[in-house]
Please model this.
Amino acid sequence: MKDFSDMYRNNIYKTLVEGVTFMLLGMDISIALKNFNGSYDVKNFSLFETSKISERFPSLKLKTVNKGINIEVKCPVCDNFHYYRYGFNELIKGELIVGGCEVLGIPLFYIGNYDKVKQRVDRCNNVNRSLYAMM
Model:
C-alpha cells in the first residue's frame, strides 16, 4: 500500500483553522491594472487575500459576495467608476479575464494566470513605449 505522502505529494495543503486542513488548487491569481501613466501594474494574489488587493491598488475595490467577486474600478481614462461581477469558477478556471472602460472600450485590468496576464501586459506596455518614443 502506498504511503499517504506519495499518493498526494502533488497537492498543496494549507492550514486555515487550527487542526483543520483544506486542499487548495490554483487559488492564486494575477491582476494587472492600468495606472494613470497608461501602463499596467501586475501583482499576484490569493483569492483569500481580497483585502490586500485593495491595499496595493487604491483605485480597485474587491468585495466577496456569495459565489463570486464584485469589482469596482476607478477608470484612469474617463475618470468614472466601472463595476464588474465574476464568479469564483470564472476566476479559477478562466485563462484570462479582461475588464475594460465601458465609455472608450480600452482594457483597464486583466485577471488570470500569471503567464497569460504578464504576456498581455508586456505587449501593451511595449506598444505604449513605442508610441511615446515616436512622439
